[in-house]
Structures are given as C-alpha cells and as structure tokens.
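Ticket reopened. Same input as before:
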Amino acid sequence: MPVVKVADDVGDMMSLLEVNGRYFPILRTLHHQEEELRNMTSWTARSDDVLICAYPKSGTHWVWEIVKMLLGQKAVRIPSMKESAMLECSSGLALQNMSSPRVLNTHMLFSDIPKDFVVKKCKMIYVLRNPKDVAVSFYNHHVRLLDYEYSGSWRSYLGRFLYGKVDYGSWFDYVLHWEKSMKAFADLPFHTLTYESLHKCPEHEIKSLAEFLGVSCSSDLSHDISAQCSFRVMKKEKDPLEDITEWKDGEPGMYRKGHVGDWRNWFTVAQNEMFTAVYEQKMAESGITPVYTLHEYQST
Ligand code: A3P
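Engineering reply: fixed in the latest deploy. New output:
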C-alpha cells in the first residue's frame, strides 16, 4: 500500500495513504484498500441512495443517524457503524450487499464520487461546519486514532490543517470544490445544511431534511429524532460496533465535545489572526459565511 509519512513545518509526521494524488486515512480493517479506492469510480448507485457528503469532522455521524431515522420513520437507533456505509471505508461488495434505501456517506470531493451517483441523480446532503471547530476536532481525531501515528502539538497542527497535509486535503479546497460543483450541477438534488444550524434549530433542520427526502415528519417525530440524536445520547450510546483498540488508551473519541465555538479554547490570538488572513485570501471568491459561535448565528 502507498503509505506516506507526511511531515509538517516542525517535522512531525502523520501516516496516510496516498492514492491518485489524494490523502486517505489508513484503514487496517479494510482489505485491499488501495484497490477499492481505485475501483470506486465504476461502482453502481441505486436511484434511492442518499449520500451524505462532508469534510471530516463536520457532523457526518450526526446527520447520518438523523437521515436513517427519517427514512425508517422511527426515532430508534439501529446498531451499525457509519463507517460501514462510507464509500471510501467500505468494500464495493459490502456496499452492494446493503439493503435499500442505502444511507451512504463520504468525505470525497464531488469529482471523485462514482459517476453513477450523478447519472442516477441520487439525493446528496452536503454538511458544512465552520473551519475553526473542524480544525480543533480534526486535531483531536488525529492525535487519538493510532493509525495516524501522529503526536504533534496543536501549535504546529494548525499549519498542517491550513495547508491540507491531512487526509482528504485542505478544507478550503474541499468547500470551494463543492461550492463550484453544486453550481455547475444545479439540476442535481442537493440539500445543504450546517452543523451550526443543526445545533441551533434541530427540529427545523430535521423537517427540512424530511421534505428533501420526500418523507413525512410530524412534530412528534422531529422532536424524538432530535432527542435521540442529541450529542448527550449519541455519546452515551457510542457506536456499539466500534473497535476501541483503534483509539489511544482504548478510549473512543468520535463523540468528543459536540460544541459550536470550542475553537476559542484552542486558538491563540496570533493563530486566529493567521487563520483569518489565510481564510480571506483563499475564500475571496466564495459565497460561504461560516458561523463561528451560536450567538453569531442569531444575528445572521
Ligand atoms: P467535536 O470533535 O468538535 O466534538 P464527523 O461525524 O463528521 O466525524 O464529526 C465529528 C464531530 O461531530 C465531533 O465534533 C463530534 O463530537 C460531533 N458530533 C457527533 N455527533 C454529534 C451530535 N449528536 N451532536 C453534536 N455534535 C456531534
């Protein structure tokens, strides 16, 4: 497998898989990972597939649970791992064996998703989270998941994040790519939601998702789904099939804090200024306005 050790400015290394010029996490549980990634473009979609698309750490697990409950019309968690329904973490065969409707997810760029999802006009849900909280969440993910063999400091990590020396590359390239693709393929069924809006108005967002999916959603159902998918409940129940040996000290870290604005506890003033400067330069042409605190959300 083409495993690479990606260094940052201070020489800290992160182990990643490099395929077709893109970085991926190394998955010891997936046999033939490189081959699966290379073959993925030819995978077939089903017209009732739903595909959740997000840069890592943007709330994919949360939205995945909500969508499964909406399609099942029940606020009950069915034990399964989001990763088993993730394009790049699963084998083509395992996905073929899933029953319909499949709720799939991916961190891949739109251009790297199997073409059949576009041909069959599958519904795609795009989840966006403010990049400062994504950076903090991704840092904790990288230091806690053993396969990355990464133990750098937060101080040096921010540069790594800003310049995309992580799996799936740069947040900026990812969101700019998706923004452009959704404009170019405006005839496809896309639904965008943000991590922050899901925090602020969960029931409203759940109803909007139901409308997009074409399923009914009473006020009781949106209320119950919101409660069952709250951070507190999801953290308590964890992912029942999760392999805890993948995590440092056997402590799974997928449900870490679940806040909007945790970045304030991590960014120094200088880091914040540097981040803002990079953001303004890279996102000059973008129509996206990230929400960095819930207070700010009220005034938008
Ligand atoms: P933090 O590390 O900031 O806590 P993903 O699912 O895309 O990997 O995103 C993971 C992030 O979403 C983590 O953020 C995780 O705690 C948060 N998260 C997961 N489930 C959540 C929920 N039900 N409510 C709020 N945040 C949730």
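The first strand starts at residue 3 and ends at 7. The chain has a mean pLDDT of 94. Please confirm and we'll close it.
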